[in-house]
Amino acid sequence: MIDIPPLWLALCLFLAWLQATFLPVWQGGLTAPFGFALIITGLLAMLAAVWEMYRHKTSFIPRRTPKNIVTTGVFMLSRNPIYLGDSLVLAGAALYWGALPSLLLVPVFMWFISWRYIEGEEAGLKAAFPKEFAAYKKETRRWL
User: Fold this and answer.
1) Does residue 84 surpass a pLDDT of 80?
2) What pTM, to 2 d.p., does this model score?
3) CB 119 within 8 A of CB 56
4) d(Cα 88, Cα 36) in Å, to the nearest integer?
5) Phi, psi for residue 106 in degrees, rounded to 5
């Protein structure tokens, strides 16, 4: 089984799209610009995080052993800017499609990602870089 975060994001996006298409509850269209802005913000956060990880010669693939701890750039705002970006994309898509009930998927997605990926990744960082990660964790929140 393929178990990567983009797959779970895609599943949640599909569910939001299904809800918007087959069980529409909001047809106002006023949320679309905000949704588009969140999608763009999320994508930019993900790109900035991948770039920062590339600069520090460490992998952005989940569950890989980290070669370095990254605390600069977008990682100064969030310990998990890629997952934050995923969440922003999901929230933005729900708003863009007018799928307001699907906004409930966002906290569920965030909880699932924390449980399934983040906790293990942070344990790996703590094991590999105990002092650096402790300081980073104290200064930087997991999401925002």
Assistant:
1) yes
2) 0.95
3) no
4) 10
5) -65, -55
- Closest by CA to 58, choosing from 44, 71, 41, is 71
- The position carrying tokens 């998990």 is 80
Amino acid identity, residue 135? A
The predicted model gives 77-103 an average pLDDT of 97
3-class SS of residue 57: coil
d(CA 7, CA 72): 27
Q: What is the C-alpha to C-alpha distance for residues 115 and 120, in angstroms, rounded to an integer?
A: 8
Candidates 14, 17, 18, 76; CA nearest to 45 is 76
d(CA 2, CA 115): 17
Amino acid at 14: F
Structure tokens at 72: 């600069």
Q: Both tokens of residue 122?
A: 């942070």
DSSP-derived 3-state class of residue 95: helix
